[in-house]
């Protein structure tokens, strides 16, 4: 559409609007003027003629009123139709013709007063039309010509000089009115165009304000990375749901507190850019798992909160399973594959509480209680969980300075060969806090969750190698097994720290055995393989602890060139049933993949005999010795050597 065409349509639509908006006052003035003129100078001679003229004028004006009402009631699109301009123009010009007809028809009977009054009224009507009809130059000009020219020409044809003068004035007034109409029409066009431009400017401003308002809303209510609610917006929406429950508008809801397991390692090793991409990916999965009426929030870091309508435990469990299954699927980013798990705590309104703040706290407690537990990845809140959490918080705080207070120590459990001779020791950590022995099952996961395992693990490695250096003097071939957390592998200084300790205590690398769990196979293999390879080049041996209880991949074991696997005690305890088949199978596999097997958890002579019959080369367990202090471990070496 060209600019001229656009402007023409604009003038058309706005012109119709101006004509009809001004029509009713003009019609009223015309009715008053026609009535006054017709009945002021009426007499017996012209009574019927003027009455007929007045009736026709009144009917025309009534039709014009009806037409105006129809325009007002029509919809916005139809108001701009050209037919309205035509209808208005016809009505207006007929009115002008009636005025002219009055002047020409009744002129012979005019008294000087009626002549003067008629000229004044016609001039006034023409002058008013110049303004009222300015939206249409053609209509304004025609109206003035029709209403003034016949009377002016008639007067100019008379013999009296004053009438001739009046007729000339009428012609001049007509010309002046037409010129004024032109000016008024141009002014109206400029006003319409200016109004149009102002309207577009205001529209653009309104759109800009709308966009900016939306942006401000997004910034203040949405998490900039994931697009989910931020904490403040979520709490506001959740409090509204809480109010609905209190007002009996809803029967309850559930709060899901979701935490990503191992996300900190992603940020620390692969960088925050990769971590952000992971969060965006997982947030999209979270949206796909939930209904549109579920409130979803990034609570902070790698924590998410949902407010879901599911309030019965069965439905909430199904949703939790769906979420954990979705979030645990591998994430492919460029040339990297990342796999994370999620832990979920659930609190239910009104079973556990009705306050949003308290329900979030309870769901958080349930989530922390489930951290590191398999196979279930979610838990509902209960009172026992809160007591457990208080203990965890207490122990976590106590762990901060436990190294400085010398509360940690190492004990050593022997590993023997088929002849019963000790070949190595496994260094096991113990913590005595406030005259109470804290189980490693309790405090090791806390260390891993808090990240203190890196510092404490470094201390364990140092202490174990210091002891190994002493044992080496008693028996040159004795080895030391040290458990290594996956989190330590992610530490950038891990390899250098191991090499530094070996060199510091002058230990042959092959005497140090690092034990890892099967969770290592779920991690970034390229990084793990590289660090394992660097240490193996120094002679360090690697063994897989608790083999068979988690994720097992023989191809990964082969690629990593694992030296030992330790069959988990759960299989040894049932060796007289199905466990024996598993042990035999592992021995067959070990011969193919060239690694040695250690059976841990041996507690009876019968178990030892069966393991010996299977050809298991190394064993460990209470049958041979419980974990012992350092001095007793040195004595154990001397005793074993002397007995041999």
UniProtKB/TrEMBL annotation:
GO MF annotations, alphabetized: lyase activity
Source taxon at top rank: Bacteria
Pfam families found in the cross-reference section: EAL, GGDEF
Protein name stated in the entry: Diguanylate cyclase/phosphodiesterase
Known EC number: 4.6.-.-
Chain ranges of the GGDEF domain: 251-383
Keywords per UniProt: Lyase, Membrane, Transmembrane, Transmembrane helix
PROSITE patterns referenced in this protein's UniProt entry, alphabetically: EAL (PS50883), GGDEF (PS50887)
Domain EAL: residue ranges: 392-641
Transmembrane segments: 18-39, 51-72, 84-108, 120-143, 164-182
